[in-house]
Amino acid sequence: MAVKSRPEPARSILTALLEVVSEHGLERATVREVAASAGVSIGTVQHYFPTKDAMVVGAFTEVVERIRRRVNAVPLTADVESDLRAVLGELLPVDARRRTEARIQLAFAARAAVSPALATLQREVLDDVRASVASAFRRRWGPDDAPRSRDAAAAALALVDGLAMHAVSAGDQYDGDSLRRPLDLVLASILS
Q1: What whole-number distance in Å separates Cα of residue 37 and Cα of residue 17?
Q2: What are phi and psi for residue 7, nearest 5 degrees?
Q3: Do residues 14 and 56 make contact, with C-beta atoms less than 8 angstroms apart?
Q4: Are 164 and 82 in contact (CB under 8 A)?
Q5: Is the dihedral of CA 24, 26, 31, 35 positive or negative?
Q6: Which residue stretches of the chain have pLDDT < 50?
Q7: Spatial contact of 72 and 27, defined as CB atoms under 8 Å apart
Q8: For the stretch 144-172, what's the b/e string if a residue is b when 16 or more beta carbons lie within 10 angstroms of its beta carbon?
Q9: Residue 16 and residue 33: Cα distance in Å, rounded?
Q10: pTM listed for this prediction
């Protein structure tokens, strides 16, 4: 569910939560810290999000929806390789907004390892993204290459995830070009 469909206090709480997670990590995202950051009472946070897990699931859902909107806005052409570069490029932390999203996603992915609610959501998101990328590879290779397309999608997404993790954990070592070049190299190799 996107934040836009939530009441204003809930949107403010989720925005505050995303800022706290981006700046300090998920462990610092307590109800008290988020309430203070949002400028609301603890009771207001608990009214909209009865548990920390509910708050975290709401925030993770918002980040996923933001990324989906951006990816869905990429115009598709007849050039599958170019389309894959554009779509996968939207997942790379090449600017401040996407670096923030990548930090948040990384924190949520780590939490999903121990939270059944987040693990379910993480699986659904990954399945959806993998299926979308696999369909692009099938456009290139045809419907008979479905297993190959799934494997290619898994490889491309693993690369993007790894690049994102390195970029957000290594400070300013990676700029947009140093993230796009490996993606271009691997896509060219997969598609050759």
Answers
A1: 8
A2: -65, 155
A3: no
A4: no
A5: positive
A6: 1-3
A7: no
A8: eeeeebbebbebbbebbbebbbebbeeee
A9: 9
A10: 0.81
